[in-house]
Amino acid sequence: MPGDEPTPERILELGQGFWASKALLSATSLGVFTELDRNGPLTVEELEESLGLHPRASRDFLDALVALDLLEREAYEYRNTPEAAAFLVAGKPTSFVGWFEMVDDRLYPFWGDLETALRTGRPQNELEDEGTHPFEGVIYHDDDILEQFVGAMTSLSMAAADVIANEFPWEDHDSVVDLGTSEGVVPRRIVEVNDHVRAVGADLPRIEPHFQRFTRESPAADRIEFRTVDFFADESLPAADVYVLGHILHDWSFDDRREILSKVYGAVEPGGAVVVYGTMIDEDRRNAVLPLLMSLNMLIETPDGSDYTPGQCIEWLHQAGFEGGEATPLPGPDTMVVARK
């Protein structure tokens, strides 16, 4: 074919992309990468035995992971690629296993109804009442789903936590509140790196056991505490030099975001700062594939949520009373915005 003629490869890969996605999610759920990290390299027969795989398709499955650059194969033995070893092994600080488990169990089935969501503007989650937020109706009421959710949020926030702990000017600040803290990976990392900072993880009561279990193992556990906070019901929030909001604003409507940021402004001490991070869309709305798809996920999951650009975030911060606003890309699809009071 002439060199300037379009070819179908990219379109076919995109249209059938859920095949590759489900292969990755299944491999994560089955524990392929964790097993190879602990006991590899292993043959196909050894993996069949240890993971309970049927021989009919096990070799095709493993070789598909090789073709996807997730596994390497040499002399009939499989091992993890460096990427898989870093991000797909359960228990590692950089692991996304918790996030992918939630994607597989909850989000993957819901995305089958994307067309309905696009036609109706209504979420397609497990709730019959489309106006009820999944936090209120499912996640914070089901022990198994909550356990998976907090683990997913930890996976999703680890890279941001490391950057915030190491690159934010903590020498100028002594206290921080992580609003919607989940297991507390952000405050834990901040106090471990900065030995003068005291941190509060703020969330709803059901989160506290998960937070305490995760943070009590920290060598800086004596400088981390949990506080029960409902950023809609509470008239005011705990005072601190710095507030961190990670993967929070996109869950809610525009009016709710303004309400949250107004309360945060009232809680930040003069001279303090707010840090907002999440999957923000690029200003031209052309290149940020994962943030744009995450915004569609907010359509499927929530009554009013959506993702936004750094410019929109800075505008809301200014409306709340903050000044400045610098946007910094983080590892992966996240962006961090910092503004001052």
Automatic annotation (TrEMBL):
Gene3D superfamilies of this UniProt entry?
A: Vaccinia Virus protein VP39, Winged helix-like DNA-binding domain superfamily/Winged helix DNA-binding domain
Instruction: Tell me the GO BP annotations in alphabetical order.
Output: methylation
Pfam families linked to this entry: Dimerisation, Methyltransf_2
Domain named O-methyltransferase C-terminal is located at: 111-323
- What's a single GO MF annotation on this record? methyltransferase activity
Q: Which UniProt keywords apply?
A: Methyltransferase, S-adenosyl-L-methionine, Transferase
Q: What is this protein called?
A: Methyltransferase
